[in-house]
Amino acid sequence: MINILLVEDDETLGFVVEDNLLQEGYCVTRKKDGKLGWEAFNQSSFDICLLDVMLPEMDGFTLAEKIRSAGNLMPIIFLTAKSLPEDRIRGFKLGGDDYLTKPFSMEELILRIEAILRRMDVKATASPLGISLGSYQLDLKNQRLTYGATCIDLTAREMGLLKMLAERPNEIIPREEILSRLWGKNDYFLGRSLDVFISRLRKYLNKDENLRLVSVHGVGFRLEV
User: Are residues 96 and 190 in the same domain?
Assistant: First the structure.
């Protein structure tokens, strides 16, 4: 069973989200502030985390940062009324995998959770063990990128994006396709977030001069191998 950590201080919204997720067959642990959420994280194992951003005691961004600093790579979806581009970008830079602005429909939340779980192979679907990228090795099972003795732990979003590019080397993949497949929709704000992830992957791959992650202006991206 998929175990979800939900940290939401709005009692009504928290109840509605928890109730709907339980009806979908998920196991849910709900906490009302960031401090309690952090304690729950340290006491149990979770497959995915839903974090409100504006939480008492400890805000959602800080909680996400602590989770990532602890070395945990479980997917994180931010639930928030903050819709400014800089807030979205900050969330993704902290290792968030998705960003859902309130008010949202439960159907959309559930679809986004299901999409992330499919990409993360949490439901134990079959997948190749790895992909070679020049001098790098992309470990799909452990969600890592290795270069010699160097090992980089990837977030779910980084993994999904790099896997998509690696599976279609030297081919331009349209921005719209990437956004639709990895984020579930295509809009300006998510496009800005995609650019952040592309820049991050370029830094990861910069040790091999035979690899280039190219931006094709107005079209998309190509991983040249």
Answer: no
